[in-house]
Every structure is written in structure tokens, then in C-alpha cells.
Amino acid sequence: MKKNLLSKRDNCRLCESKKLKLVVPLLPTPVAEKYLKKNELENEELICPLDLYICLSCGHVQLLDIVDPNYLYSDYTYSSGRSKGLVDHFENYANYICEKFKISGNGLVVDIGSNDGTLLKFFKKKNIQVLGVDPATEIASKASNDGIRTIPKFFDQKLAEKIVKENGKAKIITANNAFAHMDNLKEIMQGIKTLMNTESLFVFEISYLVDVIDNVLLGTIFHEHHSYHSIKPLEIFFSKFDMELIDITRNSIQGGSLIGVVQFKNGKYKKNDSVKNIIKLENEKKIDKFETLENFSKKLHKSKEKITSLLKNINDEKKTIAGFGAARSGTTLITQMQIGKLIQYMVDDNEQKHNKYSPGDHILVRPTNYIYENKPDYLLILAWVHSKNIIKNHQKYLENGGSFIVCFPELKIISKKYS
To answer: Which CATH class is domain 80-288?
Structure first.
């Protein structure tokens, strides 16, 4: 039964406290990446709670309802290499780490949740040995075929021991937008600790809770993302493993992310002021307080009212609306806004999703060029993190009289006269 694929934890995945409180109630949502073939439309779908809870002990914000990871990643189609912005970001990321911490060609980089190996390619160019770990078997196989050695498994303590036995300790361990995907973070950190020595660095990139709240980024909330991280709870968490944060940088990737660098306490590298400064920011914004998240929930509700009102008015005017981007965020947006019946079809560049149907609302996905044949009056951008590039790349659609609808961080309509 589908329901057996769902479980619920009763403690915080960082500090293990059971003092948890529901703070952002959301509608139950289908699993974001489970696009359906036509012959699968009658099958039972897994619809899961997507509520956010805050730990009243450490302030960590998280999902408690967990989808079986084997089901979640069994036919995973997301690929980092499809986004030029992300590819450029990963190149800058690898350069930053190697230059700032003077990493040379000696040593091993292990990327946990390595996807198609895009990040590791840039370390490999520097003649550093690389190894990926990713449970999405098809993507892992493709990465290996492309020259990035990838283990098609979930990372855990046992696998960490095997990696060390076969390769030695790692110089750098990375987890990019994967640290939020892991339920058992205690075991994951034990595995990371096994890979490290006193000269090693653990580097992670996460969607940053401050940006999620400030920019009302509903699209970042889906079942792959178990955690919505801020630094104060993480600093406490890392200290339990005799580790310390030494460096933090913020960027605009995925609507707002940060990169944190961790080493063993009193390790090789000097801690800088960035950690102190980010904690000061979080204290000022009261990011770990229930009331702050409660206000975020109220903002989401107001956004829903505005978006649904706009789309219903467009529908009443007999104008057509299509969705742009069969993205993970799109499933959340469509379900939470309850707008599935107002969207005639979706378009996407990913051929793997063409002629499939969105989870839950069963909206047909067409190739992107279909917008020039069918000429919808409005395109609702569902792949919200790519809004600027989507609009930039489809000026012809605007010139032909179409309009884009951007939902976040604020609702706006973009047509030729505004472009």
C-alpha cells in the first residue's frame, strides 16, 4: 500500500528534542517529481502531509512526515547540469574552496548527493581525485559513464567506512542542497566524520531559511527537503561531533542559499567573522522563534489569496493559462494554491517529462516550443528560481502578445510593455 511509504518522526533531527510545534500548516501534497505516464493516471498516488514544524529547543525548522527515500529517488529526473546558472555557480564554488583553503591536486573530494557530477567535474579539472555518492541509480550511472566515479547508494556510516578503506580519508566532503534532503542527519554526520581527518573540510550548501521567509519562497517546500536550515541550530549540532563552522558565504542560488565550511575543532584552518555575523543576523530576525514562522505562514496565505484571485479573474475572462516549468516547486505551488483546474497544460525543456502528467492534478506536459504554436495568453512560471532566464529566453512570446505571471517573491504580470 502507498501509505506504507510514509512515516513520521517524533523528534528533532538535529537536537533530538521532542518539543516540536506545528508552525506552517500546508495542504497534503503529491511527491513532486512523480510525473505520470498516461497509463498510470488511474493508479493510486501517494499524497503526503507537508507541514512545517519548529523545534522549541534548538529552533530548527523541518518536516516530520517522511517519504520512503527508495520511492522518492527511484525514478528521479532532476539534473544539475541542465541549468547553466547552476553549472556556473558550481565552477565558482569549486574555485572558491580551492583558492580560499589552498587545496591542491593531492587528496580526494567526496560529494554526497552528487547528482550528475556537475560539481565534481570542476574539482577533477584541478587534477583532484573525485568520488560521487547518489542514490538515483540512473543519474549515478550516467555520471560514471561521463567520467565521474559515482556510487549509486545512500550515504551512511557503513559506506563511509568502505570509502575510507578503498580510498583513504577525504580532503573535502561536499553536500550541496543535499544536506536538507537527509532525514537521519546524526548518522550522516557520523559518516562524514569517518571520512575526515584534522586537515579535512566538510562543505555544505543549503537553501537558507532567512531567504525562504524574507522572499516567501513557498516553492522550496517539498518532500525532498526535510530541513529548512539556519545556522544557530547547525552550530549546536556540529559541536556534538567535535566540529566547528569556520566560514559562511551567502548567494542567490535557488532563491537564496548559503555555503558553510566545517572542520574539526581547533583544526588546520582559522575561523573567520562570517559565522558570528550570520548568527547576529539570525538573532536580529528572530529566525528561530515560533512567532517569526507563524508570520511567514500568514504571508503564504495572503499570497495564495492574491494568486488564486488573479488566475480566476483571467479564467473568467476566457483567457488561457499555461504553466512554465515541470519543476519540483511547481507541484507545491499548484497544490497549495489549488489552481490545477485553471492551468490548461505545462511546458518544460526536459524531454523526460514530455507527454507525462503532473502529480496530483494531472496536467499534461508539452515541449516548450508548444507555447509558440498554441499561444497561451498567460504563462505562469512554476520553475520560480529560473524566472529571469525564462523571461529573457522567451522575449518572442512577449512580442507575440503573451504575458508571464511571476508569483514570488511578489506577484506580478510581465508583458511586452514592461519587458
So the answer is: alpha beta
